[in-house]
Design brief:
The complex is a heterodimer of chains A (366) and B (111).
Chain A (H helix, E strand, L loop, with lengths): L1 H6 L1 H28 L15 H14 L1 H14 L4 H13 L3 H22 L9 H39 L3 H17 L4 H15 L4 H26 L7 H15 L7 H6 L1 H22 L19 H22 L5 H5 L15 E2 L1
Helix pairs in contact in A: 2-3, 2-4, 4-5, 4-6, 5-6, 5-7, 6-7, 8-9, 8-10, 8-13, 9-10, 10-11, 10-13, 10-14, 13-14
Chain B lengths: L1 E7 L6 H15 L3 E8 L2 E3 L4 H6 L2 E6 L14 E4 L1 H6 L1 H21 L1
Parallel strand pairs in B: 1-2, 1-4, 4-5
Antiparallel strand pairs in B: 2-3
Chain lengths: 366, 111
């Protein structure tokens, strides 16, 4: 176990996802707006035969289509530094070409990164060839070894595995859909855009690459609904004559709610930090409810990002609306009920809460 | 004690800056000088100067992802944690850092 931890697989994946997210957001918005106005994402834009909305959708589609390449390049860079970029890029493209998709991209990235590191470490070249090392030897050797492994060894099994997964998910009955959606919703909400959310994100994005849009829709609807639910809780609590937020937190909400509408959940974190347990419970309960409804009704946005902008891309936009409303209501109600009433005094002061003990495993000293 | 550090989280819009703020408050409360650089999605902000790094007794990295220019801290005592730790328990983290630094100075003296 310790060996595996030292490899820091999760850290490399997260680094790659941090490069991926702005692309998903930018391209996701483009394709969401384009498709919302009736455009379609096309393989090729032929002069004079496309509308402005087709152009937008195509830009977005092009960006999203390259996600396996981005994740491979990101992972490889995270492991090997600059020498990892070139082979990661090539092996990522190879994964795309053989239909190994996002999972292929992830494995390809690790392959490429560790290969590049190994070559750097073990291949000794004479002094005159030093300049060739980063420009030719590492990119060429890593790409040929990694690429051949991708094409002839791991590519087809990954492609087979993804289609197996796809079929299994497509044939889920309604009760399993309910559970699956609930789990996706719960996991994605529970750490407010932190590492758990991003790991689930990588997983559901993989499925979307295979044409299954339900899980990612559930995830992003939960991300969208959570901050709005926090906002709604303010008003529900007022009905009970309760003040659940400090003045500072209310201010935070004013930017967190609009951010939520366009799919950014992180705005509520400062509020969550002041009262972690209650906020997480409310988010998890609401997220599980919203995710379950979303999967059950079959909300199926074709874009992986956009918040309410995802709605027009669904076969039946009302399904997404219902899922959002359920999630917002459940989160809002739960939060309004379980959060403590703040006295006037507490309203204006920041509360100091007891800190968790630090897990020694979390600290690395160099 | 002089502390420098870097905060960087996965998305680079929220945890990074919360970690920065919490670390700064906790360190100041304990009477230390601190400067935290943030490497968010927007890029590097509050960049550490070579002088600050040279004067620092310890480096705290509150990071979930690979950071750039890590080699600046070579030869320094570096303490690395996930951003989560800095966000959830900044005061306890600073206490731990104090202990680690103290220990390493004692070790150096006994050698």
């Amino acid at each position: 176990m310790k060996k595996i931890k030292e490899l820091n697989l999760k850290g490399h994946l997260l680094t790659a996802i941090s490069y991926l997210i702005p692309i998903v957001c930018g391209a996701g918005f483009l394709i969401a707006i384009g498709m919302g106005f009736g455009g379609t994402s096309q393989d090729q834009l032929i002069q004079g035969e496309f509308s402005f909305w087709d152009a937008l959708a195509t830009m977005g589609g092009a960006g999203l289509g390259l996600l396996p390449v981005v994740i491979a390049t990101g992972i490889s860079y995270s492991i090997a530094g600059k020498p990892g970029i070139a082979p990661g890029f090539i092996i990522g493209l190879t994964a795309n070409a053989i239909g190994a998709g996002f999972i292929g991209g992830i494995l390809g990235g690790f392959l490429s990164g560790y290969l590049a590191v190994a070559i750097l470490k073990y291949l000794k070249v004479p002094k005159w060839a030093k300049g060739l090392m980063p420009t030719l030897i590492i990119p060429f050797l890593t790409s040929i070894i990694g690429g051949v492994i991708m094409v002839y060894i791991i590519g087809s099994p990954i492609a087979a595995f993804t289609s197996l997964l796809t079929n299994a998910l497509n044939s889920l009955g309604s009760s399993s859909l309910l559970v699956f959606g609930g789990v996706v919703g719960l996991l994605s909400g529970v750490d407010f855009g932190g590492p758990i959310n991003k790991t689930v994100f990588a997983f559901v994005l993989t499925m979307q690459a295979e044409g299954i849009n339900g899980p990612i829709t559930a995830l992003q609807l939960v991300n969208t609904a959570t901050p709005i639910g926090f906002g709604l809780a303010y008003f529900i609590a007022k009905l009970f004559r309760k003040n659940i937020y400090t003045t500072l937190e209310t201010e935070t909400l004013k930017s967190a709610v609009p951010m939520g509408v366009i799919n950014i959940v992180e705005g509520v974190i400062p509020i969550v930090m002041n009262d972690i347990i209650r906020c997480v419970i409310a988010t998890a309960v609401g997220g599980a409810a919203g995710g379950a409804v979303s999967m059950l009704l079959g909300a199926d946005a074709t874009v992986p990002f956009g918040g309410v902008l995802m709605l027009p891309t669904m076969t039946n936009p009302w399904t997404g609306v219902v899922a959002l409303l359920v999630n917002i209501l459940v989160t809002g109600l739960t939060l309004a009920l379980i959060k403590k009433n703040k006295t006037q005094e507490e309203m204006s002061t920041q509360t100091e809460t007891e800190e968790d003990d630090i897990d020694l495993d979390d600290i690395k000293v160099y | 004690m002089n502390i420098v550090g870097v905060a960087a989280c996965t998305v680079g819009i929220a945890h990074t800056y919360i970690a920065q703020e919490k670390l700064e408050n906790a360190a100041k409360k304990a009477g230390h000088e601190i400067a935290i650089e943030t490497q968010g999605t927007i890029g590097t902000e509050n960049e550490l100067t070579a002088e600050q790094i040279a004067e620092a007794h310890v480096v705290i990295l509150a990071i979930d992802v690979k950071i750039s220019n890590r080699e600046r801290f070579e030869g320094k005592r570096i303490i690395e944690v996930p951003t989560e730790v800095a966000v959830k328990s900044p005061n306890k983290l600073i206490e731990k850092v104090e202990k680690i630094v103290e220990q390493s100075y004692q070790e150096r003296e006994s050698k």
